[in-house]
Amino acid sequence: MSNDEELDRVFKALANANRRAICDQLKLRPLTTGQLCTCLPELDRTTVMMHLRVLEQAGLVVPVRKGRERFNHLDAMPIAAIHERWIGPHAARAASRLLDLKSKLETEEQSVMSGKA
């Protein structure tokens, strides 16, 4: 599977508000499917399981069995890859521009202060 196909799955998974709500719950701690159903009472168990399957296929959720229970863990690596590819470079440029602006403003302030002294 290509990297673009993997990213498409991640974007598709995160496009749904219910799946984002599941991810929000799982970022706090791993939860069983039953615990997720308790956290999201507006969804029935079958719907939660369907959303978990989509999240698993996108690599965002990793299920771990412990006895009879299945704990769902959030794997944020696909989100980190998106951040690194699209957000990180823009954030770095914005931070650099803010540092330039700060430096220019401080230079102007020193110039004004020394002119009045």
Automatic annotation (TrEMBL):
Domain HTH arsR-type: 1-94
SUPFAM superfamilies per the UniProt record, alphabetical: Winged helix' DNA-binding domain
Pfam families membership: HTH_20 (PF12840)
InterPro entries, A to Z: ArsR-like_HTH (IPR011991), HTH_ArsR_DNA-bd_dom (IPR001845), WH-like_DNA-bd_sf (IPR036388), WH_DNA-bd_sf (IPR036390)
Protein's recorded name: Helix-turn-helix domain-containing protein
Phylogenetic classification of the source organism: Bacteria, Pseudomonadati, Pseudomonadota, Alphaproteobacteria, Sphingomonadales
